[in-house]
Amino acid sequence: MVDMPVDTHCPYCALQCGTTLTPGGPDRVTVAPRQFPTNRGGLCRKGWTAPSVLSTPDRLTTPLLRRDGALRPVSWDRALDVVADGIGDAQAQAGRDAVGVFGGGGLTNEKAYQLGKFARVALGTSQIDYNGRFCMSSAAAAGSRAFGLDRGMPFPLSDLAGAEVVLLTGANTAETMPPMLKHLDTAQLVVIDPRRSLTAGWALDRGGVHLAPEPGTDLAVALGLLHVVIAEGWCDTAYVEARTSGFDEVRRAVASWWPERVERISGVGADALRRAAALLGAAHRGGGGVYVLSGRGVEQHATGTATVSALIDLALALGLPGTPGSGYGCITGQGNGQGGREHGQKSDQLPGYRKIDDPAAREHVAGVWGVDPADLPGPGRSAYELLDALATPSGPRALLVFGSNPAVSAPHAGHVTERLAALDLLVVADFVPSETAELADVVLPVTQWAEEEGTMTNLEGRVLRRRRAVDPPEGLRTDLEVLAGLAVRLGQPAERFPPDPQAVYDELCAASAGGLADYSGISRERLDAGEALFWPCPGPGHPGTPRLFTERFAHADGRARFGSADHDDVGPAERSDAEYPLRATTGRVLSHYQSGAQTRRSSELLAAAPEAFVEVHPETAAAVGLADETRARVVARRGATLATVRTDDSMRTDTVFIPFHFPGDERANLLTNPALDPVSRIPEFKACAVRLEPVSGPVNGHASDGSHCHSRALEVQP
Ligand SMILES: Nc1nc2c(c(=O)[nH]1)N[C@H]1C(S)=C(S)[C@@H](COP(=O)(O)OP(=O)(O)OC[C@H]3O[C@@H](n4cnc5c(=O)[nH]c(N)nc54)[C@H](O)[C@@H]3O)O[C@H]1N2
Ligand SMILES: Nc1nc2c(c(=O)[nH]1)N[C@H]1C(S)=C(S)[C@@H](COP(=O)(O)OP(=O)(O)OC[C@H]3O[C@@H](n4cnc5c(=O)[nH]c(N)nc54)[C@H](O)[C@@H]3O)O[C@H]1N2
Ligand code: SF4
Ligand SMILES: [Mo]
Known about the structure:
Layout: E1 6-9, E2 18-23, E3 29-33, H1 45-49, E4 64-67, E5 70-73, H2 76-94, E6 99-103, H3 109-123, E7 128-130, H4 137-147, E8 163-169, H5 173-176, E9 188-192, H6 198-205, E10 209-211, H7 218-231, H8 237-243, E11 244-245, H9 247-254, H10 259-266, H11 270-285, E12 289-294, H12 296-299, H13 304-317, E13 327-330, E14 349-350, E15 354-355, H14 359-369, H15 383-389, E16 398-402, H16 406-409, H17 413-421, E17 425-430, E18 442-445, E19 454-457, E20 462-466, H18 479-489, H19 501-512, H20 524-528, E21 533-534, E22 560-561, E23 582-587, H21 603-608, E24 613-616, H22 618-623, E25 631-636, E26 640-647, E27 655-659, E28 673-676, E29 683-684, E30 688-694
Parallel strand pairs: 6-7, 6-16, 8-9, 8-12, 9-10, 11-22, 12-13, 16-17, 17-18, 23-27, 24-26
Antiparallel strand pairs: 1-2, 2-3, 4-5, 4-18, 14-15, 19-20, 20-21, 23-30, 25-26, 25-30, 28-29
C-alpha cells in the first residue's frame, strides 16, 4: 500500500491538470492542485471532485454475466471464458471480422497501444475504432494534410500567454478547460460560436469580439476571413512563398467568398467579419503573436475537415504556423485524446501514428509484435460505421468496449442502442455501470486512474506520468490484465500481452520508433526524473520537441500545403423546414464530463447540473408556448429528447443548444444526425433540424420545481 502523497494528473480532460493525491479522506484519496504548466495551480470542479468516483456506491466490484435477462456476479475465470468462447463462436461462424473493438481517448497510452495490438494480433480483426473519431478527427485529418503531421498543439500552451490576438473557433474553454483561461487572459480574443457561451461572454467583457454564425456554417466564415485577409493585403507573402505550396489555387477558390455572401449564409455581419480579419492581420503585421485555435464546434460537422482546412489556410496566409509566438492548434479534448490517436486503436493506424496500409509500417510493427506482416488486417470501419454495422449480415456479431459509453455519446443514439442490443455478445470493461455496460452480456470491472500506473499525452503532445496513489478495491483488474487474460485464452503466448504497464510502455516506445509520433527517447525514467518531454523524441539523448515546424513542415518538401477548394455547399447536412424549423447544436457544461458516466456519480456535480436543458431565445420558446423552467420535448427526424427550457436572449432565434451528458430519454444524441465528414468520418454532432414542443404533466419523474442550478459563473479555482 502506498501512503505518501503522489504527483499525478486529473483523470478527465486533455489539459491534464497536475494534481497531488494524498491517501486517506472520505473518498480514499484527497486531491490538491499543483503547479504544472497547463493548470498553473488551478483545477476545475471536475478535478476537485474526481476522487469521489473512486468510492462511488455503485462501483463495479465483480465481473457480471447476463443470465435469465439480468447481470449476475461471476468469477473472473468464468467471465473471461465466456468472452473467449463467444469470440471463438462468432469468428468460427463469420470470420475474423465478426468481432469488433471500440476504444477510448481516455485510455492510457499503454492501454490504447495494447488494445490495438490485441485487435490486430489476438483477434485478427480489422474492426477496431474509438471515440476519438467523434472528437478531434477533423482537425487531425486537416492537420495531417496541411503539415504532414498532426499534433493538436504544435507548441506549449504557455506560448499563448504572449499572444496579441487569439481566434477561438467553436471552443467554450471557460467551461471545458477553465484553467486554460490563465493562458488567454492577456490576448484579445475573437470567439466564433453560435451562442454567447461563457467564453464568448468572457471575451466580450474584456473588449474582445464575438461572431455568432448559424451552426454548421463556419466553412463560409473561415473562407470569408481568408478572402478578406487576401483582399486587404494582410497576407504574409514572404512566408507563403518560402514555407508553403498551393496558395494560388486557394486564392482563386476564395475569391468568390466576399463578406456579404458569407453574411447571407452564416448570419455573421460583413463588417464584423472584416473587422475580425483586420484584427488578425494587423496584429501579425505589427509583429504581435497571433493564434488560430479550433474546438469541437467547428470540427464535429460533415464539413469539419474542410472547415479546419480553411482555418489552417487562414493561419498559413497570415504566416502563423511554425513562426515563434504564433500558430494554429486544435484543442484536443479527452485526457489522452492525443496519445489515444497515435498508438493504433484507430481503424486505419498502427503505433507511431503509422498508416495500416503502408507496407513499411506493417513490416516494422509486425517485427516488434513478432508476427508476419501478411497476417495483420487492413483498415476497418470508422466509429459510427462500426456501430451502425453491428449485428448486420456483414458487420461484427460481438463487440468489446473499453473506455467509452456510446449508448449515450454516439450520434443517432437510439439506433446505436438497438445495434448494441442486437449483438450476440457485448462485453464492456468499465468501473461504473455505464448505460452501455447495462446493455452488456459480460461486464468486466476495472481499476481507475488513481489505482494504476501509466502514461498520458496531453493536448500539447507532452507525455505525462499517471501514478498509483491507492490500491484498487479487492477483486478488480486493470485493463491490461483483462487483455492479458483474454489473449492467453485466445491462444496467444503470455509474454506477448504482458499486464505490466512498464513492459507495455517500453514496447510501445520501440513500436513508435521511426514513426511520426516517435516516443523512443521518452523513457519512464526520464519522465520520473521530471523531464517534460514532447514527442517526437527519437532517442535517449533527444530533448523532445515542444515546438514543431519552426524550421520545416513534416511533408517531404518541408512545405505546408494550402488545402481549401471552392465549396458550393457549405451548410449543415440536414436542412430545416416547416416541420423542423430550428437548428439544434450540442455540447458541454462545466460540471459534467462526456456521457456523464463518471460525473453524474458525484453528488456535488449532479447537484450543480442535475438534468438536461435546452437553451433557447425567449421569443422562440414563447412562439411554441414554452416558458423558462418548463419541460420541453425537442423533436428531430430521428427521435425526441426531453429537456428543461432555459431562455436566454443572447441566443440566435433559429438555434437551440442541448448538453449531451444525460442518459435515457434526456439524451441529446437521440436527435443528432450521423452524417459523416467524407475525410475524417466525424459525425455532425453540432447541427441538426428540430422543433420544440411543450410537455404537459410530470415527465420522467422530474418535478418542475426549478430546483436545478441555473448558474453559469466563470470558474478558475486556485
Ligand atoms: N466540462 C467539460 N469539459 C470537457 C469535456 C466535457 O465533457 N465537459 N470534454 C472534453 C472533451 S473530450 C472535449 S472534445 C472538449 C470539447 O471542448 P469544446 O470544443 O470547448 O466543447 P463543446 O461544448 O463541445 O463545443 C464548444 C462550443 O462550440 C459551439 N458550437 C456549437 N455548434 C457550433 C458551430 O456550428 N460552429 C461554431 N463555431 N461553434 C459551435 C457550442 O455552442 C460550444 O460553446 O472538452 C473537454 N473538456
Ligand atoms: N451530441 C454530442 N455527442 C458527443 C459530443 C458532442 O459534442 N455532442 N462529443 C463527442 C466527443 S468529443 C467525445 S470525446 C465522446 C465521448 O463520449 P464517451 O466515449 O462516451 O466518453 P465517456 O463518457 O468519457 O465514456 C468513457 C467510459 O469509459 C469509462 N472509462 C473511463 N476510463 C476508463 C479506463 O481507463 N478503462 C475503461 N475500461 N473504462 C474507462 C467511463 O467510466 C465511461 O463509462 O462523445 C462524443 N459525443
Ligand atoms: S480542466 Fe478540469 S477536467 Fe480538465 S484536467 Fe483540469 S481539473 Fe481536470
Ligand atoms: Mo472529445
